[in-house]
Amino acid sequence: MEIQDTYLTIAKASPEILFKEKNSKFFGYAFPIDSEEEVKPLIDQLKKQHFSARHWCYAYQTGTIKTHYRANDDGEPNNSAGMPIYGQIQSFGVTNTLIVVVRYFGGVKLGVGGLISAYKTAAQMALEEAEIIEKTIDVHFLVRFDYKNMNKVMRVIKEKNIAIISQKMEENCLIEIATRAKNAKMVFETFEGLFEIEIEYKE
């Protein structure tokens, strides 16, 4: 079975989009994020920018093998904003992505159906403006060895085209390497088969 070791995300923050519905304005934004901690500062920034708006609704998903998501209606009727936004993250198949839709109320109520449709459209437009890229899911290892075995280790790294993340070269050397998930077992076994060289998965 082929291991799924790529995922889709967005390259950078998308340009602002504007969707209008019965005088209400919906500004949509998509941001790449690596963790939940990045969400609040981005929303705070939009609250400063749009201080007179009524709602700052959002949804995000993080993670690759295991994913985690959250949807927030920010005062709109239950499931009329956050979930339609999250639906677009799912529909585009992206992760490590935050979408925020800022609403200015235009005096005319849209009803739940109208809200669902407007938030969905604004989220879709934001993702259509974003550059979607494919990234690989990498597995990190720590390789420990004595300096005298350096050439042996470097030869494998070069032959297997393995990325070096960090290295400490002293009498006892430690190198952190990364490889695509589908090559991880092969890389691990190659190093494990070498004399006087230790390899472990990095948590």
From TrEMBL:
Q: Which GO terms describe its cellular component?
A: cytoplasm
Give the family from UniProt: Belongs to the IMPACT family.
The UniProt record lists the Impact N-terminal domain at 22-127
| InterPro entries membership | Impact, Impact_N, Impact_N_sf, Ribosomal_Su5_D2-typ_SF
The UniProt entry, under PANTHER family, shows: IMPACT FAMILY MEMBER YIGZ, IMPACT-RELATED
Q: According to the lineage, what is the superkingdom? A: Bacteria
What name does UniProt use for this protein? YigZ family protein
GO terms, biological process: regulation of translational initiation
Q: Which Pfam families match?
A: Impact_N
